[in-house]
TrEMBL record, chain A:
Pfam families: YCII. This is YCII-related domain-containing protein. SUPFAM superfamilies: Dimeric alpha+beta barrel. Belongs to the YciI family. It comes from the Bacteria. Coiled coil: none annotated. Residues 1-112 form the YCII-related domain.
Length: 113, 408
């Protein structure tokens, strides 16, 4: 059985500095990988200010700035899409079946150099 | 040529040329902030260089060359973080800077406006970014026009640019199937800037005329680079509005509604221009909302007086518009026009259905007040005028509504 751990935290609530946090995540990753419980490396997301939401209504993609707003909608799954631009990502996101009645929040994955 | 270049000349040059230069620089480096910084530094260098020497033969080319050198410098400083692709871009940029003056730079502004008006940015950010990058307005001017603090406007601009970078919003003209919706977003921003020019502000550097002119300039730019019927429809609409601008205010600055305007003051040259552009757009057989609104405006412009207006035609146009944009505001406009040809009491009955949707919409209350007064219902008219005054955020409009209230 596989489990997906979605990390929720207030964006300004880190109790340590960024370097320490990265160090701690790296240690956790190594530990979990050594124990054989880690399926992939996981991802960090860019801040919520970079979010774009797409909904498909009457066959047309409605694109809005920001995260999804309907509180009755709950996170139910995810895809990782590899696209060159936001437009391409939104194109694919609009084709996810739930886009017809729910909302798909598209947020870039953080890249660490 | 004088040896001193005045600050005002530079400011004028910036307003006229910065949009085009910036778009070109963004095309080179792919980042609005980097391009803005490079251009800013080039203008600062121009202030000192040109004030001691003479103006270069082609100031635009000088600015581009200098800005490109700045870009190369910034990239050199960050060299160790660079990918091979970026290295290549630097080399080609560096070698291209010498023969710049001979070449006509390509107009990349269409890409920039599509980036600034991308629906992944909120409307306020789209407007601010468009005025900043394409019109060369500074954040202080934009902040005053939109009644926010300069700091708040700066933050809005910074956040928008960060999102463009972080979310990977492309610097490109959208492809085929995306084009109509994305163009709609661009046109909505331009129309918003134009409509904002009708709202009166006090004690600001950016006048209403400035904002209207910027909107017209942007619309011309889009029509020139992308001659889509709806872009031409919007430009025709704004041209027809602009033609009647003079008659909208009395000598004392009071608001004059269409019914009472002195039609001698309408600018017939502008009306002819707007009509020609509209006919050209309509002939492509794809009448969108802006073309229909322009057509309604054109019918008004053709009439000698309010009473001889072809109201049947106007009602039909609103009905077609409602098929495309089924909004209560369009329905309200249709009913107000229909009130000229059907009994007012019938219209008042139909207005009831719009009440909940348009509760906070000032023109709904103003329109119903007028119709109620005509139907001999002064009590209802009084309530509606009071609501309209409460909802109005424009002093000239408020004064007009107040006058109508006292005349009941």
């Amino acid at each position: 059985m596989q489990y997906m751990a979605l990390i929720y935290a207030a964006e300004d609530a880190d109790d340590v500095d960024l370097n320490t946090l990265i160090q701690q995540y790296t240690e956790f990753g190594e530990k979990a990988a050594a124990a054989g419980v880690l399926v992939d490396d996981g991802n960090a997301l860019q801040p919520v200010s970079t979010a774009t939401t797409v909904r498909l209504r009457n066959g047309k993609a409605e694109i809005t700035d920001g995260p999804f707003a309907e509180t009755k909608e709950q996170l139910g799954g995810y895809y990782i899409l590899d696209c060159d631009t936001l437009d391409t990502a939104l194109h694919w996101a609009a084709q996810i079946p739930s886009a017809r009645y729910g909302s798909i929040e598209v947020r870039p994955v953080m890249q660490f150099d | 040529m004088t040896s001193k270049v005045r600050q005002t000349d530079l400011a004028r040059l910036y307003r006229a040329k910065s949009g085009r230069i910036l778009a070109y620089l963004v095309a080179q480096c792919g980042d609005i902030q980097l391009a803005e910084d490079a251009l800013q530094d080039a203008f600062i260098k121009a202030t000192t260089d040109w004030s001691v020497g003479t103006l270069p033969d082609t100031p635009e080319a000088w600015l581009i060359t200098t800005a490109k050198r700045n870009l190369v410098d910034v990239w050199r400083q960050q060299q160790r973080h660079q990918t091979l692709q970026q290295q290549f871009a630097i080399d080609s940029l560096d070698s291209a800077t010498s023969d710049e003056a001979q070449q006509e730079i390509p107009d990349e502004r269409l890409k920039l406006i599509f980036t600034c008006c991308h629906p992944a940015l909120n409307r306020a950010a789209q407007v601010a970014l468009t005025l900043k990058t394409l019109c060369g307005l500074n954040p202080r001017e934009i902040a005053r026009a939109y009644l926010v603090s300069e700091t708040a406007m700066q933050q809005r601009l910074v956040r928008a640019k960060q999102k463009i970078r972080a979310a990977g919003i492309a610097y490109a003209v959208p492809s085929g199937e995306d084009l109509p919706t994305r163009l709609a977003s661009v046109l909505a921003v331009i129309y918003l800037i134009y409509n904002e020019s009708h709202t009166a502000f006090e004690g600001q550097t950016l006048s209403r005329t400035d904002l209207a002119n910027e909107a017209l300039r942007l619309a011309h730019l889009v029509c020139q680079l992308l001659p889509h019927p709806e872009a031409n429809g919007l430009l025709a609409l704004m041209t027809l509005h602009q033609a009647r601008q003079q008659a909208r205010q009395s000598a004392k600055g009071a608001y004059v509604p269409l019914a009472e305007q002195d039609r001698q003051q309408w600018d017939q040259t502008q009306i002819a221009k707007g009509r020609t552009r509209l006919i050209g757009a309509l002939s492509q057989g794809n009448p969108g909302p802006y073309q229909l609104e322009a057509a309604i405006s054109a019918v008004h412009c053709e009439a000698d007086s309010w009473h001889t207006t072809d109201w049947h035609q106007i009602v039909r146009l609103y009905q077609r518009l409602y098929e495309l944009v089924p909004s209560p505001v369009v329905k309200l406009n249709e009913l107000v026009a229909a009130a000229q040809i059907v009994p007012v009491n019938d219209i008042l009955k139909q207005l009831v259905q719009l009440e909940s949707a348009l509760e906070d919409y000032q023109p709904f209350h103003a329109a119903r007040a007028d119709l109620s007064a005509r139907a001999g219902q002064p009590e209802q008219a009084r309530r509606d005028y009071q609501n309209a005054i409460r909802l109005s955020r424009n002093q000239v409009e408020k004064a007009y509504l107040q006058l109508k209230l006292t005349q009941l």
